[in-house]
Amino acid sequence: MKVLLYNNPENVTEYELERDLKIIPTWRRGKALKYRFLMDRVLCTKAYLLLKEGLEEEYGIKDNPEFIYLEHGKPVLKNRENIHFNLSHCNKAVLCVLDGKPVGCDIEEIPNEISMPLCRKCFNEDEINNIINSEKPCVEFAKYWTRKETIIKHGGMGITVNLKNILNEESEKNKNIQTVVCEEKGYVYSILTYNK
After folding, report:
1. Backbone angles phi, psi at 138, to 5 degrees
2. How far apart are CA 93 and CA 107, in angstroms?
3. CATH number (domain holding residue 172)
4. Is-contact 156 74, C-beta < 8 A?
5. Distance of CA 6 to the CA centre of its chain
6. Which of 79, 91, 103, 128 could lock onto 99 through a cystine, CB 3.0 to 4.6 A?
7. How many domains are contained in the chain?
């Protein structure tokens, strides 16, 4: 498994973005430029460039990757069924994961406060209690959130599942979720792969 991180996308200047946009393919450039805000354009562009970097380092692929989108919008590499990837980003970092087996990832900023209505909608009672009683509730919230999102993105399901119990479902037992807290950088990420 190859994990690539790009930190501090908020520091990317318009000049740097313009330079990056010139080296990505027209279809991806068009997608990035559809975003209204500079930060969203940066995130879209940097995610693609991380994938390109990872494909070259891990597989020797120098061509610009092309995507096909599955039913719920999960991208897969065109003509490269043996290479799996997932991308995620927040305002603090961009994450790319590559593997020979299906993979999912999610990265989120550590929030300044917790939304209890969101917790009640997406987390079960045990998870809510663990978050509230944690030494660092905002970090614990981000850990749970990324783990749930990682399962959804791994399976390419979209939000069609029971979020409250997704971490406990039997079908997820043969998978491994790694969660990393980068408190000094302000984010948490999780990666899901099959157990070997």
Report:
1. -70, -35
2. 8
3. 3.90.470
4. yes
5. 12
6. 103
7. 2
Structure tokens at 94: 């961009």
- The domain that contains 45 carries what CATH number? 3.90.470.20
pLDDT, tens digit, for every residue of 142-168? Answer: 999 999 999 988 877 666 667 888 887
Q: Which domain holds residue 189?
A: 108-194
Which residues fall within 8 angstroms of residue 180, CB to CB, at 6 or more apart? 188, 189, 190
Place of tokens 């980003």: 89
Which residue, among 84, 23, 20, 93, has the nearest Cα to 58 in the 3D structure?
84
Query: pTM for this structure?
Result: 0.92
Distances (CA, A) of 21 to 31, 55, 91: 11, 19, 19
pLDDT tens digit sequence for 64-109: 999 998 887 888 999 998 999 999 999 999 999 999 999 999 999 9
Show Cβ contacts of residue 170 under 8 Å, excluding neighbours closer than 6 positions. none
Reply yes or no on whether the pLDDT at 8 is more than 50: yes
To the nearest 10 degrees (0 to 180), the angle between helices 38-59 and 14-23 is 50
